[in-house]
Design the sequence.
């Protein structure tokens, strides 16, 4: 079979878990992870790409399982010191993590693209799979909330998701060009499946889908598009997905996430705990254990997802 | 007496020791330290000012007595990580130290001057004395050596002073404007003395003296100009001063340093160990214990230097 490439769309923590599972059961050249960059931002003069970094650290085995972001074996001397100098200290940057932000910022200023930097860093950290930003152009998620329009990291980190969300916008997205390597891969005729990882639909996946040309390229792959529900038992595993759904007037359910993706989906993987919502879902549903606690869980869910995709492809 | 202001020209370690001694025996508003910025450089995209930082950390009690540079209670996670990402790792930046470079770089890019950043950082770290860069314009010390012209930090840190020095140049110095606050202070009529700290003459003091207008302003202060020898017993306490003197064809002696400063000096403080060279020195010589091991040594040498200056003023 020549349709071997798995393309996975991912945000941070939850998506990175499934990406890791996929990376462990697929040959290195059969996985391309498309990273959301809508929550990228500039902080302390540094260019920070939280989802790329979580994916990178997770795939390199450097992630911090306690926090879900940043690096393991981290130290915090920089943060201890920056506040005393008048620097902003609401966004936590570990000393090891900082090396990536400093080096990336240097290279971007020197003219490299975010894709080039990401590819090189992944190579240096021994990651076999490709990780690419959805676009090298600047897209910034903004949140319309009960305290007005605010930047995403202001909402997410500084205000710890406390503001009530009314609307999300992706500044710059209408002018952003999709990453050419991603489009080329999707249109190469060799895509086995496009997987939408169990990430927050509104802030992790929809920025990717909003890039002009991205949905068309996904459809043009002629590969089954399969999403994994980020909602388990009517709640999000981590992060503000459930709160955000409530505030946006949506039911907090796996079925509501599937409805959000609409006819983009061919398949949908959801937990047994949410099985009573199956009836309303247009895509072909696979019921599975979707909570990924162990490494085995990650691999097992990756297998279930690929099996579901392959079953759809052979219909 | 209205001539109360002490202006001290300083490089890094040795100069900072005397500056600390001065800061402990003078009221805060009577000390202005002029910092060499010839060894400033851009590294990993960050603006680094080694002499300002050594002065700042020393005066704030945050210096690392073991290294002579950087901060005490330092950690090195950033350095541990940067090399694996392809970043340059020959210049050691501690995690706490890094906070200053990141915050300074951010502010300089936002349009603040180096003087403004330095003043604010000193205030935040509780330093009473003023520390000001010799100029807010870019001056970069370059070294003509047996391996060609090289940047100062390349010579000093990367190649650990191994190249043989033939000549020093201060790129940008002819266009650099002296720090206006320093000139105003020197011309205010309130200067008690100008002290040239026991720093390397060639790479720490001469960049300051080479700024157009700086020597004139020093002379116009009408205050005694007193230097403290960085050579003790025919050797430098730390750093490449002695090696550099030999390579430049100079005798390694306290007297040769005095000769280098020439008729700029009214007074010269040198160690008893070098007393046999006194006869050749044009300035009024004071013999003192110039090795500063303890805090008491720093204060004592500061007192000797001020006494010598006051004696010259009352002649």
Sequence:
């Amino acid at each position: 079979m020549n349709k071997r490439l798995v393309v996975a769309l991912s945000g941070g923590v939850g998506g990175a878990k499934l990406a890791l599972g996929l990376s462990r059961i697929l040959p290195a050249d059969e996985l391309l992870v498309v990273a959301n960059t809508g929550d990228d931002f500039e902080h302390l003069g540094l260019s920070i790409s939280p989802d790329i970094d979580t994916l990178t650290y997770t795939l390199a085995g450097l992630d911090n399982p306690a926090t879900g972001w940043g690096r393991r074996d981290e130290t915090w001397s920089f943060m201890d010191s920056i506040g005393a100098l008048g620097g902003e200290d609401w966004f936590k940057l570990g000393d090891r993590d900082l090396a990536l932000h400093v080096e990336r910022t240097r290279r971007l200023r020197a003219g490299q693209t975010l894709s080039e930097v990401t590819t090189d860093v992944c190579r240096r950290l021994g990651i076999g799979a490709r990780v690419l930003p959805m676009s090298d152009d600047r897209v910034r998620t903004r949140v319309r909330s009960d305290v007005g329009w605010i930047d995403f990291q202001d909402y997410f980190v500084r205000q710890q998701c406390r503001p009530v969300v009314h609307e999300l916008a992706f500044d710059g997205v209408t002018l952003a060009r999709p990453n050419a390597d991603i489009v080329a891969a999707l249109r190469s005729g060799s895509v086995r499946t496009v997987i939408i990882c169990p990430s927050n639909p509104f802030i992790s996946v929809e920025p990717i889908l909003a890039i002009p040309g991205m949905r068309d390229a996904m459809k043009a792959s002629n590969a089954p598009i399969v999403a994994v529900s980020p909602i388990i038992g009517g709640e999000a595993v981590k992060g503000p997905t459930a709160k955000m759904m409530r505030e946006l007037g949506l039911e907090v359910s796996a079925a509501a996430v599937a409805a959000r993706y609409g006819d983009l989906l061919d398949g949908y993987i959801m937990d047994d705990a949410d099985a009573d919502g199956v009836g309303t879902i247009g895509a072909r549903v696979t019921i599975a254990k979707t909570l990924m606690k162990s490494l085995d869980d990650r691999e097992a869910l990756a297998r279930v997802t690929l099996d579901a995709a392959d079953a759809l492809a052979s219909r």
Observations:
- Chain A has a mean pLDDT of 96.
- The longest strand of chain A covers residues 165-171.
- The domain at 5-61+123-313 of chain A is CATH 3.40.50.10680 (Rossmann fold).
